[in-house]
Amino acid sequence: MASIQLQTEIPGPRSRELFAARQQHVAPGPFHTTPVVAAHAEGAVITDVDGNRFLDFASGIGVTNLGHRDPAVMAAIATQAEQFVHTSINVVAYEGYIKLAERLNSLLPEAGPCKTFLANSGAEAVENAVKFARAATGRQAVIAFEHGYHGRTYMAMALTAKANPYKSGFAPFPAEVYRAAYPDFYRWPGVAGDPGACPGLHDGGCQLQRCLCREAFA
To answer: In this predicted model, what pLDDT tens digit does every residue of 190-200 receive, in sequence order?
Structure first.
């Protein structure tokens, strides 16, 4: 399929029509970053409802990182759909979930046994990671890096550094969240290959140590 090709102004008439319906019927929470409506996609190319073709640099926020309509992925989906679509692992287990967890565990650089928990989104994974850590350690405090984004559910928002637009108007947030500086080599004038001399890395490490000490001896 050819790549970029524009048939109309952007957005085209059909996209404008559908966005008018979207504004009337769809909650504004899931905002859009592009003014077009997809009709078809293949590989790295999305075709909108007006026949315009675009290169897709987002890949569904990383979900379609093999490209749209990859033959192997489509075949796997079709095979699974012929067996069953959904049982929910907490109601009826199925082999695919278990085999995927086994495969992921085998790839981890851990010497001991591992277990996998699959989540629906990054925010859900973050929320459950905090729950796991608190249950395992009995400690409440959580350390998050400055400038980090972790999601839009409440604990994930508390961990997220940027207030606007992610956190504005939604306070109060869960407490016991502490910030540590994240190393930034971009403006460091030092020598490549010598991260130990980086002030940002050292400062961030010291902040992290202080947070750990406060939590340990509180």
So the answer is: 666 565 555 55
What are phi and psi for residue 128, nearest 5 degrees? -75, -30
pTM: 0.73
pLDDT at 156 over 70: yes
Residues in the chain: 218
User: CB–CB of 190/198 below 8 Å?
Assistant: yes
CA dihedral in degrees (163, 167, 173, 174; nearest 10)? -80
Write down the pLDDT at residue 202.
54
Domains with residue ranges and CATH for the chain: 1-69 (3.90.1150.10), 122-217 (no CATH)
- 97-130: per-residue pLDDT in tens? 999 999 999 998 877 888 999 999 999 999 999 9
Q: Which of 214, 143, 154, 127 is nearest to 182 (CA)?
A: 143
